[in-house]
Amino acid sequence: MFKKVNFALGTLLIGAAVISPANSYAAIGDTPIKPGSSSNDVKELQEYLMAKHVFPYTKATGYFGSITEKSVKEIQKKYHLKEDGIAGKKTAGILKILRKGDMGRPVIKLQRLLSEWDLLNGSPDGLYGASTADAVKRFQKKKGLAADGIAGPKTMAKLAEKQAKKQVKTMTVTSTAYTANCQGCSGVTKIGMDLKKYSSGKVIAVDPDVIPLGSVVEVEGYGKAIAGDIGGAINGKEIDVFTAENHDAMKWGRKPVKITVYE
User: Fold this and answer.
1) Reduced to 3 DSSP states, what percent helix, strand and coil does the chain have, rounded to the nearest 5?
2) Mind listing the pLDDT tens digit for each residue in 189-224?
3) In which band, very low, low, confident or very high, does the pLDDT at 113 lie, cut at 50, 70 and 90?
4) Per residue in 62-86, is it b (16+ CB within 10 Å) or e — as a string?
5) Could you give the domains of the chain?
6) Enclosing H/E stretch for 83
7) Which of 37, 172, 201, 234 could pair with 15 in a Cys bridge, judged by C-beta atoms 3.0 to 4.6 Å apart?
8) How far is CA 94 from the centre of its chain?
9) CA–CA distance, 172 with 237 (Å, rounded to integer)
10) In whole angstroms, what is the distance from residue 201 CA to residue 184 CA?
11) Closest CA to 151 of 14, 21, 26, 57
12) Phi/psi at 63 (nearest 5 deg)?
């Protein structure tokens, strides 16, 4: 649970890195990604490592340092691949196969695709649980694929055939701010991210009927953030921005801000 700062609306938030919206299946694996490199592909790699619970941060930096290398080696060891710390085709192929237990932005992307096929019960939440696995199975049966509930490259490619065209929209919303620090608050989000431990993420809570979960949102005075979660008191054109410190939340107050949403 999060602290309510007088004027703020109650909600949960997820910590996640901001990356550019993608219209197709992930590009990582096209060329080897090596330690010491910096690119959008590294950001995407880190997102998948987070999904597999081996990357210890919630913010993708885009830099392939020692932490990323260690995380890659952990995946390689688990799947009996050469432990060289390089994200080549085989390693990337393993990472891009989403299955029950995975979490985060890659799962949100999957769930949004399932929603476009009217197969997902509820809103995307970033958790690959039983309901998401069931939705994947039903899609696989519909398309004549092996119904194993695992979202591999064939399943993802078929899902993307109906992917909606990327939209960009701007609007003015009422904003408030939150902190994860308060007596009795766990700071753990709906998808299991601990914002007390990883407080550097730029995340906001939204009404998914207005701003789809998983969207990248540029917020006036805050920067680019991920639309990470929903809250019972977040309705219509309202958002909550996450801040690490109480004084920053108090300073933010309650105010209208202009936002740009990249779906």
Assistant:
1) 25, 20, 55
2) 655 566 676 677 788 888 989 998 878 899 999 999
3) very high
4) bebeeebbebbbbbbeeeebeeebb
5) 26-95 (1.10.101.10), 99-165 (1.10.101.10), 168-262 (2.40.40.10)
6) none
7) 201
8) 19
9) 7
10) 22
11) 26
12) -110, 130
Q: 223-229 and 203-205 as β-strands: parallel, antiparallel, unpaired?
A: parallel
Contacts of 156 (CB under 8 A, 6+ apart): 25, 96, 98, 110, 113
pLDDT tens readout for residues 245-260: 889 989 999 999 999 9
Q: What is the pLDDT of residues 12-39, one digit of tens each?
A: 333 333 333 333 344 688 899 999 999 9
pTM of the model: 0.60
**C-alpha–C-alpha distance, residues 45 and 29, integer Å:** 9
- Three-state secondary structure call for residue 90: helix
Say which residue the tokens 């959008």 belong to.
40
- Residue 92 dihedral angles phi and psi, to the nearest 5°: -65, -35
pLDDT confidence tier of residue 244, bands split at 50, 70 and 90: confident
Using the structure block, give the residue that is written with the tokens 């919630």: 58
Question: Which segments of 29-148 does DSSP mark as H helices, in order?
Answer: 40-51, 66-78, 89-95, 105-116, 130-142
